[in-house]
Amino acid sequence: MAQTVNVIVSAEDRERLLSIIGDRNRPLKHVQRAKIVVFSAERLPVLEVARRAGVSRPAVWRWQRRYGEQGVDGLLRDKTRKPGRAPLSAKIIAKVLELTCSEPPGEAPSTIAHRDRSAHWTGRAMAKAVGVSLRAVQRLWEAHRLQPHRIRTFKRSSDPKFAEKVEDVVGLYMDPPAHAVVVSIDEKSQIQALDRTQPGLPLKPGKCGTLTHDYKRNGTTTLFAALNILDGTVIGRCMKQHRHQEFIRFLNAVERAVPVGKVIHAILDNYGAHKHPNVVKWLADHPRWTFHFTPTSASWLNAVEGFFSTITRRKIRRGVFKSVADLEDAINRYIKAHNKTSKPFEWTASAPAIFKKLDQVPEPSE
């Protein structure tokens, strides 16, 4: 296309164009178009017209042609665009929402009285089924906070004494007895000492740290831990096995660590080693101890599980351990550092609040 176009502007049009340029209430796009025509009438190159008007060269060509075809009035009108797609009807919206909350195609109820939840609706499958665009489905899902690709797991406790045990454990957390120590005890078993097959690269600006996807197993250890609710400190011992014998040894370690004269309330889960006859006998020989068991399938009530989650994320998961000894040294160092800055454990959910929330969970199918 020619770089210089001769635009002939009459005196009347020039006066109108200059008034548009000088009108501070005019939209910027009208002022720019008027400048394009005025500068073009001075026989300036297209590149210079574009620079002075602050637009692109295609814009200069477009409005030069528009002025030639429609005059000054053409500069003040925008061409109408083709109408966009009509908004989705209420019927289509209702259909998308209904299908989203139902089984996807081919996932009918099974003959053994349960549904196969292995598949879910995808945006493209929904768009094809309803006859709308993928983006339309995505907008509807966003507006109604639907996420078919996500699922949350749950399990209701079937313990017949669930309410009684929850009130007992939560009561110890929120209102511990005077002149007593409340400890949450559990074991984290099968902690693997993993060594990477190649050295990883450190974190750099714009690049994350790296670890090889494969590894070498150098053995396992079990961490026995007791979280003191009152001050947040942890007593930890690493042992090779996970039996009642090791559990009794750990109880003896906690017994030695707690000052004489203090009553000890221990919160535990229902693992078999915690109820072994030898453990029951040990408990009878140590009258200041009282065991409080969490309900079955309710490990979230055991406060020390939070410590296990933290040590896994911050020390174990990304660690490189040449041997079990290296792993145990790392665990012991972490516990030591944790105890230097520990804070009292705070439980905020009362028993009634827990019961109210659990009422929202469906009952287990028979």
Automatic annotation (TrEMBL):
It holds the Pfam family HTH_32. Gene3D superfamilies: Ribonuclease H-like superfamily/Ribonuclease H (3.30.420.10). Residues 182-327 form the Tc1-like transposase DDE domain. One of its GO terms (molecular function) is nucleic acid binding. NCBIfam families: transpos_IS630. This is Transposase.
